[in-house]
Amino acid sequence: MHITLAYVVYQFCVGYAIPATTIAYTCSCTIPIAIWYSSYGKRNLLRSLFVKFNRMKARRKNKSNYQPLVINIALSVTFLATFVPATVLAIFLFSSNKEATVFYSFNNISKQNQSRYLVSFTISNLFLMTQITFPSIITILCCVVYHKCGDLFKPLLEQLENYRVDKPRQYRMNHLLQKYQDLYKLTHQVEKTVKTTSFMVLVSHMLNMYLNLANYVIERDFAIWEIAEFLPVTFLSPTLVVAMVLCGSRITTQVKEMQYHLQIILCDLKRAVNRDMETLEMVKIMLDTKFTTMSAGGMVQFTPGLVLSVFGSLLSFGLLMLNITISSVDSIAALDPAPDLNKNGSIEV
């Protein structure tokens, strides 16, 4: 990221890069750099979170092994979705495609040799990895944190369902209260650690989707090297945004389900003939405990409805850009009307 930004600034300073390219890629490098510093600054908190996840998961008897496979597949797809378009882009840069070389400030290297292809391949990979790969990897990291935290609610939910059938005793409810408190602390730590990073990656993906949509509506006709650049964003960004929102909302959904079971248990305890006041008090404490809702920077809460809001805003933005484009074409046509023809078919002056 820093190398990409330094390359763009250097090319502009020596006069090879056009101002539009410099501004565009400087802005596109700013958010990934902010994501880097946000995630790197909280590396110790993330490490402690994963230690807690593994420690709490070790107490469970049934362990699922599909998560590492899914993570590896997601990372592989992310790298391939960047590597293949970068290779296509490098071929166009190597073949001295005029538009591509000017856009990527590559017109200062004119020798057709292996070093040119190596440099073009490096430059294309740097640009695409900065804009797409790195934010996607951090998004996968956020999804893993949310998903692992959500998995820890399953044993507690199973115990609550069993307590609804069997009359809960005091020592069992005391053990349940301890688990409930541990999960409360854990979710608070997850929200505190990941919320800033999740907000930045959400902004990065949304910005990429808006820019791609605007380019599609305005230009319509793309060169192959432009398709190679836009295709990874079109595929990865919506998928990762949906995955992060669903993983974050999974915690909120399970908290609501726990609250439902606790409310039923509380009603059963109040209707009992011999009330256990200490057990009743512990259930009330758990019901009064408000879990932190997973959010992106405290601004947008992760709920399933957020997915519809995201794509609804994209649709509205696309319609707005389409109307602006049509209005621009109509205004140009009004300023330059077609010449009038007389009866003989000649143009009237």
Automatic annotation (TrEMBL):
The chain crosses the membrane at residues 16-37, 69-94, 126-146, 199-218, 230-248, 306-326. The keyword Secreted does not apply. It comes from the Eukaryota. Keywords: Membrane, Transmembrane, Transmembrane helix. This is Gustatory receptor. It comes from Oedothorax gibbosus. The lineage of its organism: Eukaryota, Metazoa, Ecdysozoa, Arthropoda, Chelicerata.
